[in-house]
Amino acid sequence: MQVAGKVIVVTGGANGIGRALCERFVHDGAKSVIVADLDFELASSAAHELGDPASAIGCNVAIEDQVRELVTLTLAQHGRIDLFCSNAGVTVKGTECTPDHDWQRLWDVNVMSHVYAARAVLPSMLERGEGYLLQTSSAAGILTEVGSAAYSVTKHAAVSFAEWLSIKYRRRGIRVSCLCPAGVQTQFLNDEDTIHQFLATSAVTPEDVAECVVQGLLEERFLLLPHHQVQEFFAFKGEDYDRWLHNFSRIAQKLERMEQKSKKPE
Question: Is there a catalytic annotation at residue 151?
Fold first, then answer.
């Protein structure tokens, strides 16, 4: 899919990967780019800086009515949505003992937001016989994130849902891509977190991610991986699952020791 001339919605579009996507889409000649974000003021500022053809809409993607309203307003103003980028996401550190309310919050934002977007935007796309869904998951969705059980589980679910959508609607003109970056140089990376420090050593820029996305859309690839090492780890996982689990557990153990060491008083 060529970005030029397309009507595009990006959730979580006010900063980070979402902001870089919006900037790239405007640069590549999109007809309209809707910067959707929980922080409407920040989204408005981003849209103003991007200039025409960007506009802003406030949206809490964890609330289905707001996602539906986002789609309704966009269709009313622009007549169609060619590409819906379901990009917003959240994380929390923790194990199986992470509080239920945090599990639920990550489930609502990292999984159900994709479901809400599909429910809202697919009818008009299917009626036209074409449309594209870009869903941001994470490398944690095809590998794991040892520092957060809830993040890993919800990102795996996001990949699974994107896969299901691709299989279900491919023959009806709907294309689906799933973006799975590892470390990206945004505020999402916590400098005080040992695991995030590890991810930062190979982190790419949001602009690098946007470049990967544009190329992936052009080729209509399902899995978009801005980090070459993620592709290698994912391939190894499929070749020898048990060995992959063993090796990843060693990494987890090493990171845990590093974290414990960092907490010791000087």
Answer: yes
pTM of the predicted model, to two decimals? Answer: 0.92
CA–CA separation, 247 vs 241, rounded Å? 10
Rg, Å, the chain Cα set: 18
Q: Is residue 265 part of a domain?
A: no
CB atoms within 10 A of CB 252: 15
Q: Which of 116, 132, 151, 169 is catalytic?
A: 151
Kindly state whether residue 248 falls inside one of the protein's structural domains: no
Residues 6+ apart with CB under 8 A from 89: 12, 109, 110, 136, 138, 155
For the domain that residue 67 is a member of, what is the CATH number? Answer: 3.40.50.720
For the segment 99-136, what is each residue's pLDDT rounded down to a tens digit?
Answer: 999 999 999 999 999 999 999 999 999 999 999 999 99
Residue 217 sits in which domain range? Answer: 7-227
